[in-house]
Amino acid sequence: MLNRPLRIALTKGRLEKDTIELFEKIGYDCTAVREKGRKLILPVPDGNLEVVLAKANDVITYVEHGVCDCGVVGKDTVMEMQGKYFELVDLGFGRCRFALAVKKGFDFFSGYDVRTIASKYPGVSRSYFESIGMDVEIVKIEGSVELAPLLELSDGIVDIVETGTTLRENGLEVVRDIAPVSARFIVNTVSMKLRQSEIEELVKLIKANI
Ligand code: PRP
C-alpha cells in the first residue's frame, strides 16, 4: 500500500468538474484526468497521486476496502451507504438537498392509507419516515425517479433536488425538505494511520482551496 501513490476515487458526473477544478486550484496537473479517454487509473504526477473515476457507490466501496485511500463523494451516497470510513471535509460544492416530493396539490400526509415512496435512496427514505413515525412502503428505482408518481407507481419520491427544474417540468413539488447534501472528502480508516502525513497534507491543501 505504501509503495504506490496515494490513490483517490472521484465520483464521475455531477461532482467531476468541481473536483478537478479544486485539484487544479491546489496546483496539481490534472491533464491526464481531463483527457482520460478509456483509461481508468489516471496519474497526477506532481502530487504523487493517482485518480480513479467511479460511480458514487463504488467510490465508497473502494475507500471502505482500502483499495483507494480516499475519495470524493456526495453526502447523499454517504447517507445511503453508511459504512466504515472517515468523513473529513465538507467540500462545499455539489450542493443540493434531499426532499420529499409529490404530484402538485397531492395531500400526502392526510388519510390512513400506507403511502408508497419511490427512491434511488431506500435507506435515506426509510430512516426519514421512521424519524417522523410514518409507515410507508418503499420501492427502489434506479433512475428518473420522478416517473414513479407520474406512472402512479408511488405517492411520492425521496430524491435529491438541486435547481428544482426536474420537479417543475414534471408537475411535482417538494412537500418536505429532508437534509442538505454536498460533496465530502472521505478516507479509509487504515490509510488514515499508515499514510497519515500525506493525507493530512492533502486535507490541509484542500481546506485552503475550498
Ligand atoms: C438528479 C435527481 C433529479 C435531478 C434533480 O438526477 O435524481 O432527477 O438530478 O436536479 P434539479 O433539481 O436540478 O432538476 P441526476 O441528474 O443526478 O441523474 P440520475 O437520475 O442519473 O441520478
Give a verbal description of the structure.
This protein has 210 residues and is α/β, with parallel strands linked by helices. The chain has 2 domains: 6-94 and 182-209, Periplasmic binding protein-like II (D-Maltodextrin-Binding Protein, domain 2, 3-Layer(aba) Sandwich); 96-179, D-Maltodextrin-Binding Protein, domain 2 (3-Layer(aba) Sandwich), CATH 3.40.190.10. It contains 9 helices and 11 strands. The strands form 2 sheets. It has a 6-stranded mixed sheet with strand order 2-3-1-4-11-5, sandwiched between helices. Strand 2 (41-44) and strand 3 form a beta hairpin. Helix 1 crosses helix 9. It starts with 5 loop residues before the first strand and ends with a helix. It binds 1-O-pyrophosphono-5-O-phosphono-alpha-D-ribofuranose. 1-O-pyrophosphono-5-O-phosphono-alpha-D-ribofuranose is lined by residues 14, 143-144, 146, 159-166.
